[in-house]
Amino acid sequence: MNKNYVITGLTGQTGAGKTTISEIFVSHGFAAINCDLTARAVTADGSDCNKALSVIFPECFSSALVLDRKKLGAIVFNDSHKLKQLNDTIFPYIIEAISKQIEKLAAEGNKYILLDAPTLFEAGADKLCDVIVSCIADEKIRTERIVERDSISYELAKDRIASQKSDKFFIDNSDYIITNDGSVGDAFAQTERIAEQIKERYNG
């Protein structure tokens, strides 16, 4: 592999505190690509991605191809077939945008690039990564965090969790696991240790 940068994929379950973990990696010199923001960019008003999605989810778009995210979320988190249709449509646009951001960061001389991607595996973005770090947490803790963070009902939070991959999947498919059940200090210590191990692993 003849390249002078390392891509670390950061993923995990909703409500596992991945945003905090990402910030810790950044404080240790990693340049982060936020794939949630990338997804928002590719679904900007009137975009090509919105045009494709509007064929499948016409009820979620205005005539100017403005996406109603809440309406779309309510549909896909309750229907695995609809979620697959959404993913199959949106992910190629996201991968293309991510690849451009990686090229830009690498050209700027960033050696450690963090791909902060909730749907890393579903999008196929794991194939872009040299290292994969996943965050997991107790389901009850995650549910409470989602309810507070997104101001949604307990039932809707549970639906989101049910639509995602299990602890075992992340454990089996990751190089490192961060268990974020406790304090911020504990999460910081785990992340700091992993960040330094990644640097050591690729420095030679």
Describe the structure.
The two termini are 13 Å apart. The chain has helices spanning 18-27, 35-42, 48-56, 69-76, 80-107, 120-123, 139-150, 154-162, 167-172, 184-203; strands at residues 6-12, 31-34, 112-116, 131-136, 176-179. It contains ten helices and five strands; from the N terminus they run βαβααααβαβαααβα. Helix 1 (18-27) crosses helix 10 (184-203) and helix 7 packs across helix 8. Helix content is 56%, strand content 13%. The chain is of the alpha/beta class and 204 residues long. It has a single domain, classed as 3-Layer(aba) Sandwich (Rossmann fold). It has a five-stranded parallel sheet, sandwiched between helices.
Quick rundown:
The protein has 204 residues and is α/β, with parallel strands linked by helices.
Strand and helix map with partners:
Layout: E1 6-12, H1 18-27, E2 31-34, H2 35-42, H3 48-56, H4 69-76, H5 80-107, E3 112-116, H6 120-123, E4 131-136, H7 139-150, H8 154-162, H9 167-172, E5 176-179, H10 184-203
Parallel strand pairs: 1-3, 1-4, 2-3, 4-5
Helix pairs in contact: 1-10, 2-5, 3-5, 7-8
